[in-house]
Design brief:
The complex is a heterodimer of chains A (783) and B (157).
Chain A (H helix, E strand, L loop, with lengths): L14 H5 L15 E7 L5 E7 L1 H4 L4 E5 L1 H4 L29 E2 L5 E7 L2 H8 L3 E6 L6 H5 L14 E9 L2 H6 L3 E12 L8 E7 L4 E6 L4 H12 L6 E4 L15 H13 L3 E4 L2 H5 L5 E12 L5 E13 L12 H4 L11 E9 L13 H19 L3 H8 L8 E2 L5 E2 L4 H12 L1 H13 L3 E10 L7 H6 L8 E7 L5 E5 L8 H13 L6 E4 L17 H27 L7 E4 L2 E4 L2 E7 H10 L12 E6 L8 E11 L4 E12 L6 H20 L30 E5 L17 H18 L13 H13 L1
Parallel strand pairs in A: 1-12, 10-11, 14-15, 20-21, 27-28
Antiparallel strand pairs in A: 1-5, 2-4, 2-6, 3-5, 7-15, 8-13, 9-10, 9-12, 13-14, 16-17, 18-26, 19-20, 19-25, 22-23, 23-24, 26-27
Helix pairs in contact in A: 11-12, 11-20, 16-17, 17-18, 19-20
Chain B lengths: L2 E7 L2 E7 L5 H8 L18 E4 L2 E4 L12 E3 L12 H8 L9 H14 L5 H7 L11 H15 L2
Parallel strand pairs in B: 1-5
Antiparallel strand pairs in B: 1-2, 3-4, 3-5
Helix pairs in contact in B: 2-5
The chains are: A alpha+beta (783), B alpha+beta (157).
Chain lengths: 783, 157
């Protein structure tokens, strides 16, 4: 059999334009007569606006307009929340595009300036006079939930956005009967996504026709068009949203933003194109954050290592308003996954979503699953320590056994397929686990503190089906669509609703087409990210674009193959039932010389001189694919660290990632996703934290102050895999975009705590800065 | 007040009147209409705007256009010769050293500088040399491999 293009690590077709500076990102767009917008943002986290005077700003050189909340009254609706979590007493606070009377976080927009150039717009911001009366602030969700806390929204008592419960089995009884209970308080610190491309919008509105074109840094242009129609009133048929080249998102480019709608408003009102590009520092208080949980978790088990129950309470900080998908993240994408890779008979979790005077929280790579995986895998390690078992043995003892077609968890999910023990075994064989433990013991004899962290994870992705989306309050569908069009010479155009932004899916999509119908992948052009030219899609997030969009594409090509077979049979004067297909050629069974290639068929389908009865001309098909269930990638990650106890410095010396995302279309791209995902998770463990002070001012408010992973100090990630196809998906694929991040934070955390265990250190909040580690060591020594 | 400056970018002379405060990166992007050079931050941390200034890699957000009057700048648009990619561009492609591509032009010029001074850099030396350039997609691993590969290609010539 010839080498399949499916499974081949071919070079990405996206790269030539990216490597030569010829790709076009939103901020690269310049239109004739274009103006520049700049946003005045509140310097206070909570305050009453008592006066705004825009007179001097309006008179400044180059300024065309200045708008405040009064100007958008009636013209812009509040920014919608699109995940209306049911059965949770959800209270959605009104989220105006420009703050009216009260500001609720540093970053809330107070006014907009539009000027001839970006320098003039920025200058004019300084001339707007605003008087504020500061109000009390609260930035952490637990404090905000207490009685007497400052109240953000007068109609939402206790700052409680929602209270959501998941419960399966009888957790309370499990804890009553437990031989062993371990407890932990975990802080999933707030993180700032930091896609390298800052957010931007360019709006062009034709006042004569009422047509809007919006170029936007988004992961989901069709959702932007949909919600833009709600907020700005520009109907969907007159609105074209283009996500051109998008420079990473990691969740922060899912939501719709006040600044984007204001850019539309300015263009529409003035009648000239308007560009707005966030500065990076502005983005720190304007683009959504991630995580921000305080988790109180306890695990019940037996002395011989069986987990009998898991119980937890989570306070999830939501920010000052609910971002587009926010309510679903600490709940559906988190709580339902608490069984992890284990057969846990009883689970109960209470999640309190709490408003705080902070930037709204959204999905951030992994979105709920890293926080779930952390809870389980941290508690499993604590449990192992408590009962004196090797953490590997505890994992093995509790694993769900290998399954190929469905496993039901007590939280109500049906996992697709998995072999968790095999993944663990392969990863441990690769690292030489027994040898590692010996090395660790030897190191300790020489006063060197080495730690090993092991994580077995399973995650939920490939978000769909739509029926479930409706049941869980997601205000959209979760299907994907594709149109495949052959041209007379056998070249192919694909129009796809999904909109990748760095993941390389133009390449993987072309590989799917090539694999399904035997054309050269270079003969396939992929169109995406433009609502005028592509069919509807629900966006790239939740590691769903290949699993759902790729599946839609494969099914579409199969429809074309079926039609082509009928045409080929007709041309060869054979019965359809006698036709066979292989690698782009249709031939009569038993006589391979009687054949037509897909290119022959494409030509004849277009000429249409001799079509079978009842078959239309052309060779084109479309599919709206709604998956029957989610997909559940899994794997085992291993980290080795050494802690310098004199300085508190953590050195990550080895990292192994074994991931099972099903069959890999392009293993090079898969490995790249793993590398990037793992390093983002390492960032949470070792470096990153959004810090708010007592006045809810963001202290880590620039790239200078927020520690992102850099090239130095990281080992090469060793990438391994197993391959377990998903029965929920026509091409068997799962997802890989978030897996690395989901597993790596707790893997590194457990490794560091393993290193510190001989010193008696019990708990350290992330990130493991040298100072924090050093202090923890000193405290343990003192006690 | 505007001042006249003459800056050569990729072999073409740009004579413009600019405000003294105008950053070189904005000169390149707005006046030169060369948008391959990216702005990823406003604190000179990210390195996305790195270009060659008289052959030396410089973050173009750290200097003013008026400071570099008369200088010769190379941006990513000028790195390939007659359509043939530079070995660094080829190697980033070959080793999957980019995903969203936003940091890539800056990464390439920071790497260019390293290889000029150290034609056979180790992985550790590459990681150290790229400390001033941030990437959120790749975890840096394939960037390191790409630079090593490019160095081999370039020294093999």
């Amino acid at each position: 059999m010839a080498t399949r293009i499916f499974g081949s690590g071919i070079r990405r077709r996206e790269d030539p334009r990216l490597l030569t500076g010829t790709a076009t990102y939103t901020d690269d767009i310049t239109l004739p007569d274009m103006l520049h917008a700049a946003m005045l943002r509140s310097p206070y986290a909570h305050a009453t606006i008592t006066r705004i005077d825009t007179g001097k700003a309006a008179a400044a050189p180059g300024v065309v307009a200045v708008y405040t909340s009064a100007d958008i009254e009636g013209a812009l609706q509040p920014v919608p929340c699109a995940w209306l979590l049911p059965d949770s007493d959800l209270k959605v606070a009104g989220y105006p595009c420009i703050a009216k009377d009260v500001v609720r976080y540093t970053g809330d927009i107070v006014a907009v300036v539009v000027a001839e150039n970006r320098y003039q717009a920025a200058d004019a911001l300084d001339l707007i006079e605003v008087d504020y009366e500061p109000l009390p602030t609260v930035s952490d969700p637990e404090s905000a939930a207490k009685s007497g806390a400052p109240q953000l929204h007068s109609d939402i008592p206790g700052n409680q956005a929602f209270h959501w419960v998941v419960s399966g089995g009888d957790a309370d009884t499990a804890f009553e009967n437990a031989e062993v209970v371990v407890k932990e308080r975990i802080r999933q610190q707030r993180l700032i996504p930091n896609a390298m491309e800052p957010r931007a919008a360019v709006a062009q509105y034709n006042q004569a026709t009422g047509e809007l074109t919006l170029w936007n840094t988004t992961q989901n242009p069709h959702i932007v068009r949909f919600l833009n129609s709600v907020v700005t009133g520009v109907p969907e048929d007159k609105c074209r949203v283009i996500a051109p080249e998008v420079g990473g998102g990691f969740g922060s480019k899912i939501p719709v933003y006040p600044g984007d709608f204001l850019t539309v408003f300015c263009a529409k009102t003035i009648g000239r194109p308007v560009k707005w590009t966030e500065t990076r520092s502005e983005g720190y208080t304007a683009t959504t954050h991630g995580r921000d949980h305080i988790q109180d978790v306890e695990l019940a088990g037996t002395r011989d290592g069986k987990i009998t129950g898991l119980r937890c309470t989570v306070h999830a900080g939501m920010g000052a308003y609910l971002s587009t998908a926010a309510p679903g993240i600490p709940t559906i994408l988190h709580g339902l996954m608490l069984s992890g890779c284990y057969a846990i008979p009883a689970i109960k979790e209470d999640v309190y979503g709490i408003y705080t005077n902070t930037v709204p929280v959204e999905a951030y790579r992994g979105a709920g699953r890293p926080e779930a995986t952390f809870m389980i895998e941290r508690l499993v390690d604590l449990f192992a320590t408590e009962i004196g078992m090797d953490p590997v043995d505890v994992r093995r003892k509790n694993f769900i056994p290998r399954f190929e077609n469905g496993h039901d968890t007590v939280t109500g999910l049906t996992y697709d397929s998995g072999d968790y023990p095999a993944a663990l075994t392969k990863a441990l064989d690769h690292v030489g686990y027994a040898g590692l433990r010996k090395d660790q013991a030897n190191a300790l004899e020489n006063n060197r503190y080495v730690g090993i962290g092991i994580t077995s994870y399973v995650e939920i992705c490939g978000l769909g089906p739509s029926q479930v989306a409706g049941a869980i309050g997601f205000q959209g569908g979760l299907w994907e669509s594709a149109i495949v069009r052959f041209h007379p010479t056998g070249k192919v155009h694909v129009f796809i609703g999904a909109s990748p932004h760095g993941q390389g899916e133009e390449t993987t999509f072309a590989q799917i087409v090539a694999d399904e119908i035997g054309v050269d992948p270079n003969d396939v052009k992929i169109f995406h990210g433009d609502t005028d030219t592509t069919p509807m899609g629900w966006g790239t997030y939740g590691s769903r674009t290949t699993a759902v969009g790729g599946a839609a594409l494969a099914l579409t090509v199969r429809k074309i193959r079926d039609k082509a077979k009928v045409i080929a049979a007709h041309l060869l004067e054979a019965a359809v039932a006698d036709m066979e297909y292989e690698n782009g050629t249709f031939f009569v069974k038993g006589s391979a010389d009687k054949s037509k290639t897909i290119q022959d068929v494409a030509l004849m389908a277009h000429l249409a001189w001799n079509m079978p009865e009842g078959v239309e001309a052309g060779l084109e098909a479309s599919t709206f694919y709604d998956p029957p269930n989610f997909v559940f990638p899994y794997g085992t990650h291993v980290a080795v660290v050494e802690v310098d106890i004199e300085t508190g410095q953590v050195n990550l010396t080895r990292y192994v990632a074994l991931d099972d995302c099903g069959p890999q279309i392009n293993p090079t791209i898969v490995a790249g996703q793993v590398h990037g995902g793992v390093v983002q998770g390492i960032g949470q463990a070792l470096l990153e934290e959004a810090v708010y002070d007592e006045n809810a001012q963001l202290i880590s408010g620039s790239m200078l102050d927020y520690a992102l992973p850099r090239a130095d100090g990281l080992p090469d990630i060793e990438v391994l895999s197993t391959v377990t196809p998903s029965p929920h998906n026509p091409i068997g694929v799962k997802g890989i975009g978030e897996a690395g991040t989901i597993a790596s934070t707790v893997t590194v955390y457990n490794a560091v705590m393993d290193a510190l265990r001989p010193l008696g250190v019990k708990q350290v909040d992330m990130p493991f800065t040298p100072e924090r580690v050093w202090r923890a060591i000193q405290e343990a020594k003192g006690s | 007040m505007k001042l006249p400056v003459s800056i050569t970018i990729n072999g073409r002379l740009y004579e413009r009147e600019v405000e003294p405060r105008q950053l070189l990166v904005h000169f390149i992007r707005d006046l030169g209409a060369l948008t391959g050079t990216k702005v990823g931050c406003d604190t000179s941390q990210c390195g996305s705007c790195t270009v060659l200034l008289d052959g030396v890699s410089v973050k173009s957000c750290t200097c003013l256009a008026v400071q570099v009057d008369g200088a010769d700048v190379t941006t990513i648009e000028g790195l390939a010769t007659n359509g043939a990619l530079h070995p660094l561009q080829e190697s980033f492609w070959e080793k999957h050293g980019l995903q969203c591509g936003f940091c890539t032009p800056g990464m390439i010029f920071a790497s260019h500088e390293l290889i000029q001074h150290n034609p056979t850099p180790s992985a550790e030396e590459i990681r150290h040399a790229l400390e001033g350039n941030m990437c959120r997609c790749t975890g840096y691993q394939n960037i390191v491999h790409a630079v090593q590969h490019a160095a081999e290609q370039m020294s093999g010539k």
